[in-house]
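Q: Here's a chain of 108 amino acids. Please give me its 3D structure as C-alpha cells.
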Amino acid sequence: MSRAGGGELAVFVTEPCVAKVHGPEFAYYRDGRLVSGISFESSSYGVGTEPELLAPALTAAGLIGPDAEIDLDDDEERQVRAISDFFGLPELDLSETELADPELADPE
C-alpha cells in the first residue's frame, strides 16, 4: 500500500498483552500519522484523524450499527475480514492466533 509522496501502513495486533487485558486492535497510518484505529472490544469508537473511516465497512458486516449481530463467536474474525476487504488487503491466516483459538491465550 503506497501512494506518491508518502506511505500507508495497516497494522493488526491480533495477540496483544493478555496480562494487561488489552484486546486485539487495528490501526491505519498514512504518512506516519494515525488516520484511523479501533479496538476490537469497542469497534463502534474509532480514533485518529478519521475515526469513522471504517464505520461503513463495519456496519455492512453487521458489526456496528442498529442491525449489528454482535456477541457471536466469530466477531473478531469478521472484523479482520471487513477491514481487510475495505483496504483490499490479502486474507490473513488467523489459524495460529488467539482470534481463531482463544485457548491459545491460556497456556494451561
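Q: Can you summarize the key feature?
A: Strands lie at 2-3, 6-13, 25-30, 33-39.
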